[in-house]
Amino acid sequence: MWLLAAIARLQPAAESQAEDESGLRRIASGDQGAAAGLYDRHARPLYSLILRILGNETEAEDVLQDVFAQAFRQAARYDSRRGAVAAWLLTIARSRAIDRVRARRTRVDAPNAEMQTLDEMPDVQPDAASTMLDQERARLVRQALGELPMLQRMAIELAYYEGLSHSEIAERLEQPLGTVKTRIRLGLLKLRDVLTEGRA
Amino acid sequence: MSTHEELKANAAGYVLGSLDPEERRAFESHLAGCAECSAEVASWRPVVGALATAVPQVTPRAELRGRILSSAAGARTGAHLHDRKSRAALTWLPLAAAIVIAVGAALYVARLQRQMGELQARFDQAQSTTAVLAAPDLARIDLQGQPVAPDARARALWSRSRGLVFTAANLPPAPAGKAYQVWVVTAQAPISAGLLTPDSNGVGTQYYMTPADIAPPVAVAVTLEPAGGVPAPSGERYLIGMP
Q: What pairing do the DSSP bridges indicate for beta strands B178-186 and B237-241?
């Protein structure tokens, strides 16, 4: 697997991170021309995450718009010491999508059939060579998730993609609270190992 | 009062966003003054970030780009913005070329695509399962083993909007040429949810889509049928449960 290791060492994010940082600085100083570059580099992964959480294209588009609006507005607040721009944007996207899922969950008349689009979602489109590393990384994570014991995987997915808290997960899975916390931690430890190996 | 070690164990949940509100407040106020926990939090960020990018990748509609950029720029037309996209592509070209030359990438991509297709199927199944578990209209039906398999147990989790997650345990292996079939029984008729293939321990979990307009189930059942399944139940009943 020398090839995977070689690709993994290419550090694809460095260049794009530099562009992202200068883009955010320009936006923060009132130059909206940098917005397009930021959009082009990040719209697809952000939209994919939002769509995974919401399962509805119209809502996902609204949330994507909110995410970029927030990112452009708060460009000056971005702090590179806390992580890459891509991670910052994904955090905003997840948080806004989960807010909407929670709001939906508390509505009595939760709309039906929204999640059905999940199964109709197009497959990954591995077309551009530039995304091969990301694909490989995503593949490793999926594989690692798939290999976790079922309750570990479910607890992590319910937390991250559905926005449930520890106690909500404990209730859904009918497991003691402490067990849920332990399972989440063990599962994430496994994922961390896989990612660390993938980089080595 | 929680100790440092107890709080540190919450770092992963904090980054994942799964702490209950009180835990979260306690952790945040501890985090502000604890370098060790800050480092712990930092170590989890890439892991959680990886969850964000492990989802199936979907390109948003092209119209959305203009809408978002023009709302960002206010009245600005953004006429010259499109050239940035090709520049971004250009910066990737040397890297792309290097990879292509290095490996005969066609073979590699083909293999990657196949692997991804397989994983995708498994992943979709897992996604659907968690979607059902988190459904606002979740209903639970426990099934009891029938005389032919008294130790068998199963649970059906059903959401009208999101489908059915069925988990069975202690099912004897299906004889050659036979398969277990899961039925959602409504007042009108039993509707086939699909086949269930238990593993060597007699455990099977499967996600099934159910029609959104299905009548409320009065029972869920598992029968043993000819391999491939049948349109209406004909074989021996292994598990039955009522809401």
A: unpaired
